[in-house]
Design brief:
Blueprint lengths: L11 H12 L1 H10 L9 E5 L8 E2 H7 L6 H7 L6 E2 L1 E5 L5 E7 L14 H17 L13 H15 L4 E9 L10 H15 L10 E7 L6
Parallel strand pairs: 5-6, 6-7
Antiparallel strand pairs: 1-4, 2-3, 4-5
């Protein structure tokens, strides 16, 4: 019998986030708090990714990882199955805060494929994103199910959790100077790309802004 195959190592943003969450969790918690006056937690219990499989969760599994299983039925009526897959999930110790994390290591990762949903699922997604776009006062003509669909659906999920009374935060970790991407990115380059994203979606100052945390992490910080 042949030996089981070794799992393929994660690359790029997944690799760096795995390193950060599993080996430097305090650095990530400090950075989140430093970049958001609304965050109260000083320590975060990271529920994913965790060794040895470093799994990522979506839908009901994500809610269970966050001790929010009581919301599973409500989620099913809000968003169709196979919703956002979260790069990391955390719970603030001593608080009710939940942290939903996305990680990027180079600018092309900001652009996602449009939704592949069809039929009633597509209608449900369009309805939710149209409602969110209106409530955030976006006047952009852009279709939120298009090239920045991933960012838009993360915003929708954040809005839904907060509407359920959960003090949730959407954390985007942007890795600077990652050596294993085609074109390593500086912090000013990330900031410029994010301005384009927000302009496309028509997002300025809006009611979810205090609960969105952008963290720029130079991979050299992970060596210390």
């Amino acid at each position: 019998m042949s030996a089981p195959a070794e799992p393929r190592p994660f690359r790029r943003s997944r690799k760096w986030l795995q390193e950060l969450v599993c080996n430097h969790p305090a650095k990530l918690a400090v950075a989140i708090r430093a970049n958001s006056p609304a965050v109260q937690a000083t320590t975060i219990d990271w529920r994913s990714p965790r060794a040895p499989k470093y799994l990522e969760y979506r839908d009901g599994k994500a809610l269970r990882a966050l001790d929010l299983e009581h919301l599973e039925r409500t989620l099913a009526s809000f968003w169709p199955a196979r919703g956002p897959v979260w790069d990391a999930l955390g719970v603030g110790l001593g608080t009710d805060e939940r942290f939903l994390v996305e990680a990027k290591a180079h600018i092309p990762e900001l652009v996602s494929s449009p939704t592949g949903a069809q039929g009633s699922s597509l209608r449900q997604i369009r309805r939710r994103l149209t409602d969110l776009k209106r409530s955030l006062r976006s006047g952009a003509p852009a279709d939120w199910t298009g090239p920045f669909y991933q960012y838009a659906n993360r915003l929708a999920y954040l809005d839904w959790l907060r509407a359920q009374g959960t003090p949730a935060f959407l954390v985007s970790v942007y890795f600077v100077n990652a050596p294993d991407v085609p074109e390593p990115v500086s912090k000013p380059q990330w900031e410029g790309a994010l301005r384009v994203l927000c302009s496309y979606l028509g997002l300025g100052r809006h009611r979810l802004k205090p609960y969105i945390v952008d963290v720029f992490f130079d991979v050299l910080q992970l060596a210390g």
